[in-house]
Design a protein that fits this description.
2 domains; Arc Repressor Mutant, subunit A; Dna Ligase, domain 1; 7 helices
Amino acid sequence: MGFCRELGIKPTHQRTEIYRELMSTENHPNAETIYGNVRKRIPAISLDTVYRTLRLFEQKGIISRVSAAGESMRFDGNTKHHHHFICVECGKVRDFYSDNFNNLVAPAEVTELGNIGSVHVEVRGICNDCQNKNRHNPKK
């Protein structure tokens, strides 16, 4: 609960469990998945509480949103600067680190719009698992 105090928000059991759930996975879960898992430990928690807590955590900068192909908004507890590979077939979101992407210089068309705080790259494609599955089960 120390993270709540550091951020100036009231520490609650629900917030701690939601945070713990998000930090325990690299799968970038959506709010419904987080709710389902936390509800096993706190049966009285509501989906609304999960949504409000995730929104608060995002505002405080300890999590970020990830939009996966055609799915509901997902959340990322990894606050280290990183990028995402999103599979357009299965929706899997994978973190990756790249100095090449970190050092991208925004073109004038972007800098004319305002000050750039950071650059986040989202690469979309077909993951190796889906490619292998497609090779072994070609569509007829």
